[in-house]
Specification:
The structure is a homotrimer.
Chain A (H helix, E strand, L loop, with lengths): L26 H19 L11 E6 L4 H13 L3 E6 L5 H4 L4 H9 L4 E6 L4 H8 L5 E6 L5 H15 L6 E5 L6 H11 L5 E5 L8 H9 L3 E5 L11 E4 L10 H8 L6 H7 L5 E3 L23 H17 L5
Helix pairs in contact in A: 1-11, 2-11, 6-7, 6-11
């Protein structure tokens, strides 16, 4: 084992890098990742038996359960014949409950494996783990209100897959833009590319914060806040729909008022959508897109978004472990 | 991926079929399954390293824990070099606890794998999952008071293995015949074949329901209700013993009265059994067969029944995934 | 499957033996194990893809969670391409919660696999499981206040790896020597070899019991009780440091008094250690070795001890399953 590089920019070279934040990525690295992701999709679709990760052990260390992300990483490793060590809720396990520190737990598990995938409820945990682990890279599978970079990357890839580009795009972001971790990560991703426009549709209480708004604007992304579905641009390439959580509203009357304005129905899609767009959602959804829409071929949240999540993770595991260049 | 066929009769062709109920099986399909099961037993016994499921991913989605069925399916997949994604109690996982529907969960997991094995506490859940899953087949690993088809199949196979046939057999069913899911499934299986006789021995409170009794009778199975061990036929090929659960009795005095009548001891086996029979139990047992009987070579509940469960599941996985014809 | 040999002495032949206690080992068996362990280290370090356990299924049956031991055994099996069936907290699972006995659970799981690794909170559980299992060997992964033989073996191996021998060594044992399961196992291991000296440093309340003291003395180990760090021998080959648990003290004032005397700091290591020693700890630690010491090259508790644990388990699995002679 050789000491790994510290957490840093990817610059087109993923080998032994920690994947903690979308901030590590430049456009070149994203395109490289997507090229490998496309290969992975081919492997998975044709059910070729791939040995790319044969002999590699990936620890899935989940301090909070997340069936979708867990299943996606597990499937990604196994599609490539990699092994997994699966630890869910280690705080219920004896060592941690006896008072073992996060540091010691990370040090112990890095001795058993080639890579750690970490899910943690606290912002900053992935960065911390990346600094602690001396020999193996760490991939962030979501750290609380922090980041969830593989979710943002699969969203970007889904758009890229449909339109063959990541610039000159117009997107609609709807729902809770104040708290939504995935919204902000995707906006950050789009801001790396030129001439993108994001329409922002949300209840007043859940608008993008002034700070975030200014940040993204500075980075070159064109942001347009709208208040009504009628203002959705007819030429949007994608809608990125998210939950408006009841618990975010102090005044429940306000919630009831806005709730129905933020539901996608067949009629909404027909009245305000266009033929070539895609309808995305980071899941889980709890009613904000009606099941009647699921069968529409523009609805990709239960189809290509899910599959792309697995392909992106297959690509990241292979690149970070140095099995693909 | 190609769209799978809808849940339906097997008719000798298992590929891409959901396995939800024993009602899907005819005698031809059962014999075909058993032929493959025998091959699987050979593979497992000789510890040959089989690659039949190499490259396949099976999701074990268990909405309630069941160590035996879970272990059996996991072992079945791994005996053939298949991979598993293991999700136990997804309702504790964040997506589902955030309110994700059963539909969305099934759609998500089918994107990660080639086949879903579902355990669920609610009757009808397996059928529902089979209808939701668009691309991958679903195998029912028990849905509440509904069905548990692989248990019934392993019971049938155990009888078939011993006697080389599934017709012209005489069996004794004892214990709780009113509520026992496995009893009814096995009776259904036997009713597909000709000239079988089932003696039914149970407390009055736990007799087979009139409806079930008439149903099985109509299908050609000969049913004989008895009230005393003395009436057990001397030529029974098998005894299928089950638990009489205390909680089924409103009157605890009644329970105490019948309890001891339904315990298999060495003496009971000697007085009322015969040399060539087998003694079966679907497990778990909690006292209704005494450990002193375990060493008897007729007792198969902890030996061939358990192993046959794994072989049946190996066969089903291989057939449904189209790896064996 | 052939019936396995009963639990007994190893005498240089591990195949099909249960590994329940360090008492089964003689020096010859330990040296043989260490020779194989060294090979395993080479396999793991060079990330060669080994197929030594290909086709084998190992059940990890953990009646209490232990992330480190669980992860170590899982990694050991997977490093050698073995499969695992992972059952954590089976008492929450339906069969066991319905009242299934420990006997039946062991009989069921041995039908699915080639070897059972058992973790259990009750002393004697591993021995019991070894007696129940008729066909597959059982490895003890810790049974309450009983034994944890693979921990003792990894400790011995860590010392052997450093000094190339297991005799003529001087060690310091510090902390809770009354209750520490690992301390006593390691002392037992050292007592098999000649001319070893153990210095024992502990609070009065946590001294080695008179019974243990006399036992080890009889077996040829030289024991020297000391009360002060100043009495630590300058030529110690290793320090084996353990936790002094607050809950062991009836009088909390006594605890506060002794607590600080049993913390390893940089200064303590500088004042009382020597250049060639190693500093060991069975983990988890909760403050008794300060993190400032972790970077010292003599500190092996987060490095070679952890890795050696995986190598020892790789070796044991291979030997017991008869894949290496």
């Amino acid at each position: 084992m050789t000491q790994k590089g510290l957490f840093n920019k990817i610059n087109g070279n993923f080998k032994n890098k920690d994947i903690v934040s979308l901030r590590q990525f430049d456009t070149k690295s994203i395109y490289k990742l997507f090229k490998v992701t496309k290969k992975m999709a081919d492997i998975a679709k044709h059910a070729k038996s791939s040995n790319i990760l044969k002999g590699n052990i990936v620890t899935l260390l989940f301090y909070e359960p997340s069936s979708r992300t867990f299943g996606s990483f597990a499937a990604a490793a196994k599609q490539l014949s990699g092994h997994t060590i699966e630890i869910i809720n280690p705080t219920d396990f004896s060592s941690v409950s006896k008072g073992e520190t996060f540091e010691d737990t990370i040090r112990v598990f890095e001795a058993y494996c080639d890579l750690i995938v970490l899910r943690h409820p606290e912002k900053g945990a992935a960065q911390k783990a990346a600094e602690i682990a001396k020999f193996v890279p760490v991939i962030n599978a979501g750290d609380g209100i922090g980041e969830h970079p593989t979710q943002a990357l699969l969203d970007l890839y889904t758009i890229y897959q449909k339109f063959g580009k990541l610039n000159n795009l117009t997107g609609l972001f709807a729902g809770d833009l104040l708290n939504g971790r995935t919204v902000k990560s995707l906006l950050r991703g789009l801001s790396l590319f030129s001439n993108n426009i994001a329409y922002l549709l949300s209840p007043k209480q859940l608008k993008l914060s002034r700070e975030d708004f200014d940040d993204f604007k500075k980075s070159g992304l064109k942001l347009i806040e709208i208040e009504n579905k009628k203002d959705i641009p007819k030429n949007a390439n994608f809608w990125y729909w998210t939950r408006t959580q009841k618990e975010r509203f102090k005044n429940k009357k306000n919630y009831e008022e806005v709730k129905n304005k933020f539901i996608v129905t067949k009629k909404v899609l027909q009245d305000f959508g266009n033929k070539d767009m895609i309808l995305m959602h980071p899941l889980p959804r709890v009613g904000e897109i009606l099941p009647e829409v699921d069968g529409d071929k523009r609805a990709v949240y239960l189809t290509s978004e899910i599959r792309n999540g697995m392909y992106i993770r297959m690509a990241l595991l292979s690149l970070v472990l140095g099995k693909i260049k």
